[in-house]
Amino acid sequence: MTDLARPPRLQLLLAFAVVYLVWGSTYLGIAWAIESMPPMLMAAARFLLAGSVMYAWARLTGNERTTFAQWRWAALFGVLFFLIGNGAVVWVEQKLPTGLTALIVAMVSVWTALLEWFRPGGTRPSGMVLTGIGLGFLGVALLVLPGRGTGSVDPAGVGLLMCSTLAWAAASVLSREADLPKSTALVAGMEMLCGGVWLLLVSLATGEWPRLDLAAVTTRSWLAFGYLALIGSLVTFTAFAWLLKVTTPSKVSTAGYVNPMVAVFLGWALAGERLTAGTLLASAVIVASVVLIIKGKELMPFPLKAGRHVAPPGGGVTPAAAPAQSADAA
Q1: Bigger pLDDT: 241 or 58?
Q2: Lowest mean pLDDT among 172-176, 193-197, 311-315
Q3: Is residue 232 situated within a structural domain?
Q4: How many domains does the chain have?
Q5: Looking at residues 11-25, what average pLDDT do you find?
Q6: Would you say residue 330 lies in a domain?
Q7: Cα four-point dihedral sign 52, 54, 57, 62
Q8: Minimum mean pLDDT among 54-63, 161-170, 246-255, 257-266: which range?
């Protein structure tokens, strides 16, 4: 903990509830937003709006200046985190259930552990972490292999999500060596702005603009969009950044296995998504995988260098000094 004063228990619980519930609900929010909005255009508008507010707030409340080199890094992470990371989630949710999407996104933790091992100078993971890695791939296999009782799953969508989580994990590891501002809010604003621009370019290239009919956008889609941009990206970031100041990163990283459970429950309760025995088994295996990886890293005698990003592709980006785990996005 960096703050000497112990925060009020109720305030602490409320902040954790925001990080757990809001990030877990962003998957359902995406599904509702793209019901009547073009997916890439919706994602672009979301992050351009949230990034503009975050960047303006960071500049007005701080004196840190940005450099051209830092903007180049932000542009790169805009591709990895938002164009590939979040963009794939938004695109896939046109076909895949939100709960299943969130479970596969939890693979960010698995990929991160592998990349930390294979990067130059990396450390071999403990037996607990290796077990978690194996369980992660087993859980995905249980979700997608035929005859496992999880229903029909689009293999192309699953493959795209796996690429999304790999890109997110690679960027999380790479960001530890990047030349970025010290202000977490400033980094978040820069990366969301760059990511929004990349998503907007893809939206233009794929011809989404002619398909946009504002009169046809439903009230539910507008409310979901506002929720994603303001609550999912801005409010949750504030709660997350505060938690990192008043408690340990390992406790904050527990969102990595709570968020998928929240997403699965909300998909079942509010979107009518089926919860088969196979889905429940795969869910338990994947959540156990994330738990083992997080706990295994905590027990390492020489902890890995802190990462800067812990939000998943479904939620909002949250650069901070915490282990790189899935927690946003999307």
Answers
A1: 58
A2: 311-315
A3: yes
A4: 1
A5: 92
A6: no
A7: negative
A8: 246-255
Residue 1 belongs to some domain of the structure: no
216 vs 228: CA distance, rounded Å = 20
The confidence score (pLDDT) of residue 251 equals: 80
pLDDT at position 297:
79
DSSP state of 321: E
Angle between helices 39-61 and 219-226 (to 10 degrees): 30
Which amino acid, 136?
G
Flag whether 154 is in a domain. Answer: yes
Structure tokens at 10: 């109720």
Please give the Cα distance from 34 to 37 (Å, whole number). 5
**DSSP structure string for 58-106:** HHHH--PPP-HHHHHHHHHHIIIIIIIIIHHHHHHTTTS-HHHHHHHHT
The 10s digit of each residue's pLDDT in 88-97 is 999 999 999 9
Tell me which residue of 279, 229, 244, 227 sits closest to 99, measured CA to CA.
279
- At position 319, the amino acid (one-letter code) is P
Q: What are phi and psi of 16, to 5 degrees?
A: -65, -40
Task: Report angle CA 281, 283, 288 to the nearest 5 degrees.
Answer: 100
Q: Tally Cβ neighbours within 10 Å of residue 56.
A: 11
Under 8 Å CB-to-CB from 42, ≥6 apart: which residues?
33, 34, 90, 225
Question: Does the pLDDT of residue 48 top 50, yes or no?
Answer: yes
Residue with tokens 């999407």: 101
Six-digit token string for 293: 């990886």
Neighbours of 190 (CB within 10 A): 27
Where in the sequence is the domain holding 182, given as residue range(s)?
9-322
The rounded Cα 125 to chain-centroid distance in angstroms is 23
Q: What is the pLDDT of residue 55?
A: 94
Q: What are phi and psi of 106, to 5 degrees?
A: -60, -15
Distance CA 20, CA 278 (A): 24
pLDDT at site 318: 42
